[in-house]
């Protein structure tokens, strides 16, 4: 009898240990699930788009009008091969990927802008390191076809002004296209390489300024809706800022956004 009791006691002890181990595993799994997955939904679920009210043209009451849902991100700084530790990269990129994918699913933006410094080592990375970074970027920031993703270069992507080169710019534009003027739902976005706005007359700066003048001319001409055509309005914006020094120049950021029938640049 003593032997049987001892055997049952050992069995119960092993069962208790097994249940305790299962409980610990379940608790750890639940904590990981909450902290690494569900927490993003709980936090971003509290966010919502502001309701934009526009006064109707034919009445005094305010009416709702469809608006563009745009999300702006910046400085993702995906770590590279030189300064990025694999564990740090894994942790950071998992958090960014989950936050972005959750925001896409809950908020459903129509267009997403990433305003520069996508990569941390783009200014010196080799061709292979660049290709690896780009592959990771596309995995993290994957999106449905109906969502527009627009990316603007930053100094960590192509180098600071005196570090940037035509090669790095072309390499960036080959992946993210070189679109400068993007229009969606009647709203115009001017995407500018701000690193090339040093104004020292270098070839890259001169090319960027020429593109801005061309876009300015196009936007000024697009304002001629329902009015008599005027060559005065189709002159580039920079023509006026140079001819009339008392006019404050428009500040051109990395992305300028203007409403319907926009001026050349937003002030």
Automatic annotation (TrEMBL):
Quaternary structure (record): Interacts with GPI-anchor proteins (via the GPI portion). Interacts with TMED10.
Membrane topology: Multi-pass membrane protein
Protein name per its UniProtKB record: Metallophosphoesterase 1
Annotated function: Metallophosphoesterase that catalyzes the removal of a side-chain ethanolamine-phosphate (EtNP) from the second mannose of the GPI-anchor protein intermediate. Participates in the glycan remodeling steps of GPI-anchor maturation to allow an efficient transport of GPI-anchor proteins from the endoplasmic reticulum to the Golgi.
Domain of life: Eukaryota
GO MF term list: hydrolase activity; metal ion binding
SUPFAM superfamilies per record: Metallo-dependent phosphatases (SSF56300)
Record's keyword terms, sorted: ER-Golgi transport, GPI-anchor biosynthesis, Hydrolase, Manganese, Membrane, Metal-binding, Transmembrane, Transmembrane helix, Transport
Organism encoding this protein: Rousettus aegyptiacus
Annotated family: Belongs to the metallophosphoesterase superfamily. MPPE1 family.
Pfam families: Metallophos
Domain Calcineurin-like phosphoesterase: 69-188
GO biological process, one term: vesicle-mediated transport
Cofactor: Mn(2+)
Keyword Manganese: yes
Subcellular location per the Swiss-Prot or TrEMBL entry: Endoplasmic reticulum-Golgi intermediate compartment membrane
One GO cellular component term: endoplasmic reticulum-Golgi intermediate compartment membrane
Membrane-crossing segments per the record: 20-43
């Amino acid at each position: 009898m003593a032997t049987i009791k001892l055997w049952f006691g050992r069995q119960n002890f092993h069962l208790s240990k097994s249940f305790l181990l299962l409980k610990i595993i379940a608790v750890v799994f639940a904590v990981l699930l909450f902290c690494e997955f569900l927490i993003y939904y709980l936090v971003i679920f509290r966010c919502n788009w502001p309701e934009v009210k526009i006064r109707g043209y034919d009445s005094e009451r305010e009416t709702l009008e469809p608006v563009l849902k745009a999300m702006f991100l910046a400085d993702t700084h995906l770590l590279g091969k030189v300064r990025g530790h694999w564990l740090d990269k894994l942790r950071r990129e998992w958090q960014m990927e989950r936050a972005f994918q959750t925001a896409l699913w809950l908020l459903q933006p129509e267009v997403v802008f990433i305003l520069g410094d996508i990569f941390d080592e783009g200014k010196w990375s080799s061709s292979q390191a660049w290709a690896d970074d780009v592959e990771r970027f596309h995995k993290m920031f994957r999106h449905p076809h109906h969502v527009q993703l627009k990316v603007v270069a930053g100094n960590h992507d192509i180098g600071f002004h005196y570090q940037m080169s035509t090669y790095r710019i072309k390499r960036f534009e080959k992946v993210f296209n070189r679109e400068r003027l993007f229009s969606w739902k009647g709203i115009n976005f001017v995407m500018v390489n701000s690193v090339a706005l040093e104004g020292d007359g270098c070839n890259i700066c001169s090319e960027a300024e020429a593109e801005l003048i061309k876009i300015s001319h196009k936007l000024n001409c697009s304002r001629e809706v329902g009015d008599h055509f005027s060559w005065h309005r189709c002159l580039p914006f920079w023509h006026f800022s140079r001819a009339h020094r008392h006019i404050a120049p428009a500040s051109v950021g990395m992305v300028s956004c203007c409403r319907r029938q926009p001026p050349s640049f937003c002030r």
